[in-house]
Amino acid sequence: MNDTLVDLAALLTKARQASRSLADTDRNGALRALAEQLGAEQEAILAANTEDVAAERARGSTAALLDRLSLSPARLAAMAEGVRQVAALPDPLGRVLDGKTLQNGLRVRKVTVPFGVIGMIYESRPNVTVDAATLAIKAGNAAVLRGSASALASNRALVAAMRRALAKAGLPMDAVQLIDSADRELVTELLAARGRVDLVIPRGGHALISQVVEHAKVPVIETGVGNCHVYVDAGADLAKAKAIILNAKVQRPGVCNAAETLLVHRAVAQAFLSEALAALAGHGVMLFGCPRTRAIYPAAQPATEDDWATEYLDLKLAVRVVDDLEAALEHICRYGTQHSEAIVTESLTSARRFQDEVDAAAVYVNASTRFTDGFEFGLGAEIGISTQKLHARGPMGLAELVTSKYLIEGEGQVRL
Q1: SS3 assignment, position 44
Q2: Model confidence pLDDT, tens digit, residues 191-235
Q3: What is the C-alpha to C-alpha distance for residues 27 and 376, in angstroms, rounded to an integer?
Q4: Domain contains 144
């Protein structure tokens, strides 16, 4: 589709019309059909993804970006399984959050209802296309999706498959819409569509999120940048710490819950860093260290102030030796992005203080930051990880994609 053929106003009108009837449909049946359709159209979806990956490789994109962009039969199967898991979750709509009968006899209930139309703006990862649509539909919302130009062919194939599945299941296929264009003006138009879009959720790097927050005239839930830390305390089990930092950095470096900085208490730095950093380097990690780190591991590059504040999304790691837990907390407070932070320690006192004082959506004791994920938390697929504090924080599943309204029943009461 050419950019000139994208009529965003018409697209949003169709999404609004589709959203009005979704709450009363067999949404779970539609999601199961959607999961089946992803399998049935695997060949076409993977062919489209191969086209995207080849184009990005030709542009010289990083290995981390190519990993975020790439689909495989296994990843596509995992996406379909995520859809089935969402279908099996309890319905988030119609839950009574509060209820009472007033002195005048009015019966008041506060119940969960859909937002209506949710816009999703995201980068690179085509699995977000399915996650966002799945959660939106389950919560009775229409989804308007705008992925990155790098994943446009993949997103076209995925959205086409999902729309066919909805139609087969008797739901309005316009409940899933793709802004099929790389034109950034359409993003600006989407962010200004008050009254036609009820909520926009950006998911990506700092530049994307800042652009959305600065220009949006519609409500936004900010999914944050992940400058995540692992702190190895004086009371750490060093074998456990090594396994955790390797997993947090290496297992999938191009995602927001990967570790970007390793902090190590000076009391265990000598014993820990030589072996741990050699292991990280053996996995291709480029290391940037403070002077005390480089005294122990000279192969590390000198760390700059920018390194402490950078979300690499790559096989790169900043390393700092700190004097104590207090210094680690101060570093995280200064450079962290309130996403995911971890301490490795056998000290209950240190663990509790870390949990109490670190201001982040997810705070770990003796576990990898890589678990900050809706699927891992048992929420099914997620639509993003919120680092703000209003309405939603942490992995956003179904509970964060509904709002509420009051239902009041009376017998002719009038206000005096």
Answers
A1: helix
A2: 999 999 999 999 877 788 888 888 899 999 888 789 999 999 999
A3: 23
A4: yes
